[in-house]
Amino acid sequence: MHEWSQIFSQGFMYAFLEPQSLVCSKDRRSECEQYLERWLKESDREVYIGPYFHQEHWQLIILCPRQHVVVWFCSLRRKPDMHIKATINSVMTKLKKTLSPETKAVAPKWIEVKSHVQTGCYECGYYIMHWIWNIIASDIKSDWSMWFANDTPLDIGIITTIRKKWATFFLKTTISQNG
Predict the structure, then answer these.
(1) Which domains does the chain carry?
(2) Is the CB of residue 166 less than 8 Å from the CB of residue 137?
(3) What is the pLDDT of residues 69-122, one digit of tens each?
(4) Side-chain-facing half-sphere of 132: CA atoms under 13 Å
(5) d(CA 61, CA 157)
(6) Per mean pLDDT, which range of 19-28, 110-119, 146-155 is the poorest?
């Protein structure tokens, strides 16, 4: 993902969170919190994009530490589960205090974007890829509800295009790395 954002000259702005590190069950919360704290401090980017897998469904988390905002995408309109929300709130609040010690410690603003609702039971990953592609290609870093306000399902043509774009990109990346 990072290499792909470099193509659009956005590598300095976007960072990607590892989905396997965003597992935030009750017993793994501290690991997830440590990962987020370390990554947000070390990489110092404007926007962090994290695919989040919970209850057999892909969702998307966008962290904007400088704006103290978290953006939540879910193609089934599920709310963020309490473990990931508490973890992110904790990390973002600590980071805000570190960046601006004089400010009052408050939870970040959560924006639940109402964009594209899936109708089937398998498409959530395509929705995530669609949103990520649009965020990076359009250089989106604010005004989330304005950019993502279409609540219609993605049609099969868009899903097919997404599949082809990502397959082409991954094949190109794999070939260039191996040869």
Answers:
(1) 2-178 (3.40.395.10)
(2) no
(3) 999 999 999 999 999 999 999 999 999 988 787 878 789 999 999 999 999 888
(4) 26
(5) 25
(6) 19-28
Residues 60-76, mean pLDDT to the nearest whole number: 96
Strands 69-73 and 47-54: unpaired
Distance from chain centroid for Cα 98: 23
**Distance between CA 103 and CA 113 in Å, rounded?**
27
Cα distances from 16 to residues 4, 46, 49, in angstroms, run 11, 11, 5
Reported as a pLDDT band with limits 50, 70 and 90, residue 161 is: very high
User: How many distinct helices (H) and strands (E) make up the chain?
Assistant: 6, 5
How many beta carbons lie within 10 A of that of residue 138, not counting itself?
A: 10
- Backbone torsions φ then ψ of 66, nearest 5 degrees: -65, -30
